[in-house]
Amino acid sequence: MDSNTQTNLTGRQALQQQVGSRFYADWKSNDHRARRLVSEFIGTSGLTFVLSGGAAILAGYGGGDLAPYQYAFILSAIAALWLTAAVYFLGDISSHFNPAMTLGFALRGDMGFPMALCYMVVQFIAAAAGSVTAAALFGTGGNLAATVPQPDMHYQAVILEAILTFGMVLLILGMTDGPKLLGGSVPLAVGAYVMAMGTMGGPFDGAAFNPARAFGPDFARGDFSTYWIYPCGSLIGVIVAVGIARFLRGPAKAQEANAAMGNPLDR
Length: 267
Prior knowledge:
By secondary structure, the protein is mainly α.
């Protein structure tokens, strides 16, 4: 491969060239693949567990009724703190915890679509497991933090989910740089974004901006009547965010692909 071709490589192709043959060998390795997927399972199931468990505990043992904005504030804080902690301790392995984020990395060229599909399957299974576990332990109070839009406001909720997902994906794509996503910056930025947008949008439609987060409580309570809103809104937001990120920053570099996919080197 000549130097000009090497210079033009972007995303996962640039990372493959930088790391060498171990790049694909590691993803095909059962050990390496399992570490990434287990990391995604821990982070995503933890998110729905703390949200569903938090809602059920507040409803059953909180000592009084709360206004919708109070629920939104408390649950947003719970989610923000969990995601901040999870990205800190799992970020060098894999810390998407959101099918929308995984799709964004795939569309930008940081990771292949077969790999992204594996991530998404695990994320949805993990989300269901987290909410089901919370329901088994604490009951279904607080609707398990299900994301439910206001009556007759479904299309407005789609637009809100698109906007919130757009902001999250653009934030992560803009800060991606190296296997830890700019070290300590991204976990704090993610937590701040989740706290702000969850508090603002929670009383309106639950403010998921994460199709797996919306899926978990719906699965546990057996009601998918309005679930379609959340993947539809997220899909729109992801596509727009990836286009804007490419316009602002150009194609993904090797370091960015490394951040998206986790560390491809041996333990």
